[in-house]
Fold these 4 entries.
Entry 1:
Amino acid sequence: MIKPKASTPISVQDEARAAEILGRVRRMEVRTNRLVDDSLAGRYASVFKGRGMDFDRVRNYVPGDDVRTIDWNVTARTGDPHVKLFTEERELTILLMIDVSASSDFGSVVDSKRELAAEAAGVLAASAIRNRDKVGLILFSDSVELYIPPGKGRMHIMRLIRETLFFQPEQRGTDIAKALDFANQVIHRKSVIFLVSDFCLGAPLEERLNLLRNKLQVTNRRHDVIAVSVTDPREESLPDVGRICIEDAESGQVVEIDTGSAKVREAFERQSRQRRELTAVRIRSLGVDLLQFRNGENWMPALMGFFQSRRQRSG
């Protein structure tokens, strides 16, 4: 089993940095609580209900009881037929799997993709806590960087948000398949997994998508996986600013391109669109829901619509 790394310490000597972090997390908490209103919390509760039933007690059989619930051990011991009674298992485990590879730090608007992911994760975690569910966290790059076991409470959620925002990963690449393997090892009970990533898988894309598809298929059999794609508008189109050098955040490769050429900009947009569409098709072909959040845009309507469509399907 992959050994999870320890939580990120904050140097007590760096008071200014500590104050900045605390202020950022508190502002994130305020915004999260504002976003998680009664409507969103209610939709969450109606979609993610308890999985399975918990045994409660036995009682004497009465005509009309389902014979499949007869407790044969108690019946044999007492000489009278008894049936098992169950109560709905309400508590869920929510696992947030968040991509913290180098590409997640990119942002052409006010926030980076990592900050967008942290806010979305905070909203989901706060909704879960209001429903008395447990929430855990996996931060991953091309290795599992941090694992926080599922827990409850405001301080627990604050820690998840803080780590998502400020954790410094050791690696730069992305390996979603390895992170899914780790999740399957540490989470044994059926859970709801939110996989948050920009899905910048690198080349060769087909090979990486096939591997991701296989791992997602296995994980989705055991759990309820929901993919959340976070993208930035500058990854979809280029401005006309002449010749520029672009560095791949994960591989470090630098290329020079002429953004003044309309053909270059069109080719970039076409390739970017094809990669996004192919990735979405592969994910959805497994029956895995895919939410798409774009940096700089209001993503809450998409989340509300997802809860609504899920509720309609389950109904």
Entry 2:
Amino acid sequence: MAGRVAGKMALVTGAAQGLGAAQARMLAREGARVLATDIDAVGAAATAAAIDAECGPGTGFALGHDVTSPDDWDAAIEEARDRLGGLSILVNNAGVGVRGTIETCTYEEWRRGFAINVDGVFLGCQKALPLMREHQPGSIVNISSIAGLIASDTMPGYNASKAAVWMLSKSVALYCAKMGWNIRCNSVHPTFIDTPILDGIVANTGKDKSVIMGKLARQIPLGRVGEPDDIANGVLYLASDESKFMTGAELKLDGGISAM
């Protein structure tokens, strides 16, 4: 089914690499014009260039964007209006890990995690809705984590921030429905995915990547670490009209972890 989001206008945050880049490229392949934003403006531009090379000039656009900044969000929404012609898909993908147990996690790390993982999503939803109302039907896809549904003793900051994204998504979904808008909001909950963020985790262990990847894979019933397109395919479904009766829901892309 080619052209699953044909004619739609999408903004994807955290799109310089990893999941965000995969999501941006997937949406573009299926017919959307895409604004890739990231605090790494050079990386976002590379994603947009790759989209144009694959899908044709004028398909991908880029913007430097700090998702914790209300002013940057205003600029991103105006860029979507000017370059895309509007906005019908918002993917709040930007996020960071939060290190430390309840005893070792610093307050600064806790605050930084919530600023990016939660405040960024809140601002994105709030700032995007006025423009999305002009271009219904619309879909907001918030990238949470399986860690937002299943707790760990080693990452309270990440657990708590991603759980907040999960519940925020439901509240936004109910608000849009109550207002009578054809704008849906859902959350996506990945497990371990082979991205540069995972490479950073591996580097911190000082062990060979294959050893760490094997250890992670053994925790997943399907027996493998996910690939970025495993998540991008789920985002594509939620962004498309195929999911027009799905809102306030969570899509678990976790290889079966949450079934145990």
Entry 3:
Amino acid sequence: MPGVSLWRARYSPQEQRGLLDAVLANIAHAPFYRPVMPGNAKPFSVEESNFGPLGWVSDQAGYRYQATHPVTGKAWPAIPQALLDLWDAIADAPPPQCCLVNLYREGARMGLHQDKDETARTAPVLSVSLGDDAIFRIGGETRRGPTKRLTLQSGDVLMFGGVARLAYHGIDRIKPGSSTLIPGGGRINLTLRRVKD
């Protein structure tokens, strides 16, 4: 699909464990929480946190980026160096300002959506998978257009930009027990974004 690149097993099992250690060290300072949908306050099925100068949040007031954790009020921890190195290697864009961290436990999913709360849309969206396999779906710029499905596995890196920057995408489901990497089971997805030009 034009604008979409996939690197299978970009991170070795040892590198995945090292990256997970860095992620969990940050989570100790910016714990996972469960966002809610704007308006109706329905809880997400995923838990979230963020790293970097800005974090993406959702609550009854809407979607937005902010510099502090909505529960603790503290600044988000820095993006791990391994992720910044990855971005430098493949993104060909100024540094990311946000790393959204999604935790998918069994039964969690993410409906089709666009990443459009950013003004820096010339930069791609870069995603790293850790833990259980996930059924990922991606389409075009209309919600009802055709989509493609692929399985993302631990250590895979996916990037979409250019003509695919506003592609609808989501996670249909995860495959519980397909990995033992994440304590307690599940999948962690790390999404790097440039927010502002």
Entry 4:
Amino acid sequence: MVADACSDLVVGSDPPRARGRTDSGFGVVEIIMAVVIMSIIVVPTLTAVITAVRAGTTNTDLAQVQTVLQNAADRVNRAPKSCDYTVYAQAAAQTEGWLGTTTTVVQQHYAPGATAAVPGTWTAQACTGASPTPLLVQMVTITVRSPDGKVSKTVQVVKSDV
């Protein structure tokens, strides 16, 4: 019995195998199951990563739009009374390295009612004529869009010497 056990062991030969067992590698079913399990784990993870990157980009765009919008509102507010404030809003966008066309400016002036009992209205254009008049109340609506057009914010600035 000892001789039989030792006779299988030859230097440099393969180790003895258990009888009836062969190593045939992975079967198709095992490979398919491994791929399915991996996809169950990997697909949601990749989806979460892509969503996080998109949210980060949107937050960055929103912060930049807010910065340009605040800068534009400050520039319009500090500008001397004028009949056109577009250049001030566009300058705020250009300071950020954006095209001036990312800003839109709508200018109106307040036309009081004929009497105190009649309400006034906001009328198109910042001035009633070619130049601002005393006691003129103006409303400048500034809209800033991100360069990719996905984020847009608006603010209204009222200018008055009343």
